[in-house]
Structures are given as C-alpha cells and as structure tokens.
C-alpha cells in the first residue's frame, strides 16, 4: 500500500553541536552592550582620587568658578591663556584610574562570567600605569568593548557561513543592509567574507549592537549605519531621484544626485553632491545598465561608494570610472577632461573661468605620484588625499570644499 512520505526534521549533525558549543564559548568570553555600559559606570564609581589629586581637583573647580563669575560681571573679560591649562588639568583628573584592588572589585561587582578573562593580573600588568600603579579605567573598558564586539561578530558571522562562500550570509538581510555589509566586508573581486577580518569591522560591531533592545534607545543608536532609519534614507534617495517612476534612473535623473531632499540635511541649504556630466556619462558606460538606465541595486552600490569617504573599495570604484582609456593610469589629458566638468559648473555658478591647468598641477602635487606625468591606482590608494582627489575631479561640491580648505 502506497503511503505518503513523512518529512522529518534533519537530525543535527555532530558538527552543528560542536559549532553551538564553540559559539557559546565565544559569547561566554564577551560582554553584551548593556553589560559594557554597566562596566563603564562601575569604573567611574570605583575610581578615586589620591589626596593630592583631590586637592588639585578642588583647586581647578575653584579656578573655573572664579573665571565664570568674572565673565558674568564683565562681558569683555577674556580668560588668560593659563586658564586652558587649568581646563586640561581638570580633564586629566576626570579620567577614572584604578589600582589592582579597584580593578578586581569592578569585575566582581559586574557579576558577569565574561569579564573574568579581562580582569586578571596578567591583563592589568599589560596596561601603562601612573606613579601610583593605576591604569586608565576607560582604556581598559575600550579593550573589553573591542574584544567583546569582535567575538560576538565572529559568532554571528560564523552562524551564517554554512558554505564558506558568504552567499548564505547575504540572504538573511534586506537588500539595502545586505549591500552595505557586503561592500564593506568583502575584499575587491574575492566574493568571500573572511571572518577573521570582518569581525573587527565597525559594521559588524554595529550589527551586534542592534541585537540588544536597550541599544535602540541609547544615544549611540543614531550613529549606527545599519539602522532602519539609515536604510530608509537610502531608499528615499532613490525614490526621489526616480522622477518618472519607472523603477530605473536615467542620466538626467542621476545628475540630480545629492540635490534632493532625502540627501540634504535639515540644517543645510546646499546639496551634498553635484556630480559633473563627464563623471555621470562615464558611470553609465562602466556600470551595468538596462536600456541605458540604472536599476536599484546598481544605484545602491554607487550611492554607498560615493558616500564612503574612507574605504579602499570606494577608491577602486572611482578608478574604474576615471581610467578613461583603461590603460592603468591617468595622464594630464584625462585629468583635464574631468576638470572641464568642474570648470563648466564654476562658470555657471560664478560667471568666471576656472584655470584647469593650475588646478591640475595642484592635484598632481597633492598626490605626489611615482611617475610625474602619470597617476596610478596605487598612487591614489597610498596617498592620504586619494579620496579628495577623486571627488574634486567629479563633484562640484567637493571642489568647493577643496577650495575653502586651500584658502
């Protein structure tokens, strides 16, 4: 007699059980966000001044109150330069310092197994100490915080890395956050998340913090790049650019990048970006398009790279666009080509001509390329001004920032 097959849950493998034990071990060696906040509080509460420091602290407070009274009585009064030293002294005295007994008492007061690995005599001795044998309590908290976030990020990433290729990890996130993580964590062209490197990335730490309910009402939440609000802002930027509402962005629509309300902060009247026609034309040549228009994913990748002013990946994206002839270097003619876009905007905004030859010379001097006539990707990556260089060539707002700093 035929029977309907019964679908049973797949038994957990020995590997899965081992992994669960390993994950539990990692988490036992780390502190959660609320526990880290409690640790910071306990450090401040436990630290105490030496008698001479207490007297000095009282003296700085008296000096500060005297200066405040003087300024209230005389609006023209300017504190003497020596008062800055008093304020620096006050800041130094505000740093919580712990001797070994206080160091251990903080760990005992926290009552969390995860702190024990960071509260040993060996750890205490690895920190610099002052003349009274005390360490900087906040420096210790920062070490515990960084280590805890790295361990929790490792456990989180490992849980999704079932194939070792990172694809499973991507499928657990909505498109926007997935792309933010993917672009940040995956080295150029490798297609893989290397957990040992990724666990130290701020985005992974941001992801770990979001798993704690208390964190969502903290002051730190607003600066987290992976929040719902941050993803919503990126989505609104695309929707406002797509004026014909066909789900794709034309060159004309993309030229409004940085000018729409979703880009501009409430306290600013200026756009965040004003891309040149030359740059946008090249973007549409280099990036995959559909009937000459950008889809959501391509825009998202571009948007994240344009707004990323620190990473190597962002510079590599710009290089693909700037390497006009695909020869591996930029010469004076290529730099001049992109600067013409800036010159056009200068003329439209100010009614004056931009001497692109002078600006081109300044940019070469700023980068100091190994070859005096050619700029390579390595030159840009190795320079402290690589991000400034690529943006001055492509974005009028960045050019204005460059000019303001130059003056």
From TrEMBL:
Name of the molecule in the record: Uncharacterized protein
Keywords of the record: Calcium, Cytoplasm
Compartment list: Cytoplasm
Transmembrane regions listed in the UniProt entry: none
GO BP annotations listed: cortical cytoskeleton organization; microtubule cytoskeleton organization; regulation of dephosphorylation
Organism placement in taxonomy: Eukaryota, Sar, Stramenopiles, Oomycota, Saprolegniomycetes
An annotated GO cellular component: cytoplasm
């Amino acid at each position: 007699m035929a029977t309907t097959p019964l679908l049973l849950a797949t038994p957990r493998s020995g590997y899965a059980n081992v992994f669960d034990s390993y994950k539990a071990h990692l988490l036992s060696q780390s502190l959660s966000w609320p526990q880290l906040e409690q640790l910071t509080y306990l450090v401040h509460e436990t630290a105490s001044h030496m008698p001479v420091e207490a007297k000095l602290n009282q003296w700085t407070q008296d000096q500060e109150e005297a200066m405040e009274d003087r300024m209230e009585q005389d609006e023209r009064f300017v504190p003497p330069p020596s008062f800055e030293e008093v304020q620096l002294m006050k800041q130094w005295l505000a740093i919580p310092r712990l001797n070994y007994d206080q160091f251990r008492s903080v760990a005992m007061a926290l009552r969390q197994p995860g702190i024990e690995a960071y509260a040993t005599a060996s750890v205490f001795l690895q920190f610099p100490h002052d003349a009274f044998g005390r360490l900087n309590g906040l420096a210790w908290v920062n070490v515990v915080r960084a280590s805890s976030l790295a361990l929790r990020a490792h456990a989180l990433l490992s849980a999704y890395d079932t194939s070792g290729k990172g694809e499973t990890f991507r499928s657990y996130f909505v498109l926007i956050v997935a792309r933010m993580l993917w672009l940040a964590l995956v080295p150029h062209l490798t297609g893989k998340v290397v957990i040992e490197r990724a666990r130290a990335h701020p985005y992974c730490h941001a992801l770990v913090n979001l798993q704690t309910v208390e964190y969502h009402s903290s002051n730190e939440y607003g600066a987290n790049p992976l929040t719902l609000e941050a993803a919503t802002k990126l989505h609104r930027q695309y929707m406002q650019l797509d004026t014909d509402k066909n789900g794709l962005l034309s060159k004309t629509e993309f030229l409004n990048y940085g000018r729409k309300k979703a880009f501009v902060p409430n306290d600013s009247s200026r756009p965040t970006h004003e891309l040149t026609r030359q740059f946008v034309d090249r973007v549409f040549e280099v990036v995959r398009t559909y009937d000459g228009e950008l889809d959501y994913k391509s825009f998202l990748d571009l948007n994240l790279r344009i707004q990323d002013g620190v990473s190597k990946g962002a510079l590599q994206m710009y290089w693909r666009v700037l390497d006009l002839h695909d020869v591996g270097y930029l010469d004076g003619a290529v730099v001049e080509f992109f600067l013409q876009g800036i010159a056009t905007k200068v003329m439209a905004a100010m009614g004056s001509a931009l001497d692109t030859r002078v600006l081109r010379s300044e940019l070469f001097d700023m980068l100091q390329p190994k070859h005096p006539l050619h700029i390579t990707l390595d030159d840009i990556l190795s320079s402290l001004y690589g991000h400034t260089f690529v943006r001055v060539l492509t974005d009028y707002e960045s050019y204005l920032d460059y000019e303001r700093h130059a003056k």
